[in-house]
Prior knowledge:
Elements lengths: L1 H4 L10 H22 L9 H18 L7 E6 L4 E6 L4 E6 L1 H8 L9 E3 L2 H9 L5
Organism: Mycobacterium innocens
Protein name: MDMPI C-terminal domain-containing protein
InterPro entries: Maleyloyr_isom (IPR017517)
Amino acid sequence: MARCASGPPAGFFRLTWVRELANLNEFFVHHEDVRRANGREPRSFTPEMDAALWRNVRRGARYLSRRLRGCGLEVEWAGAGEVVRVRSGGPAARLSGPPGELLLYVFGRRSAAHVEVCGPPEAVAALQRVHFGM
């Protein structure tokens, strides 16, 4: 029991920020995979959870959208007035939604994510063709 309580061994996953980023993403995305596969709708979260998910969207969206070519990409936390440009270039498409839904989208769960996609037709088409995720 003490071994588990002490956390991960020395190394990369001992770093707090690594655990916060990787663990939150993994647990959230896979939990939602199970929920959505069983017909469940998106959940509401505490402001703290939304903020943590948004932080991870900001940190990870550039890498997770690395295959996107021919357009820029912005992500918007709908209702919070926060927008981050994660891919430069033009024209730019925009994903808008709650942080958890944006995280699902950039992790490749496009069909499960409740987000709004907008922008010039060529940018939206490029966004819909690309594979997001690891």
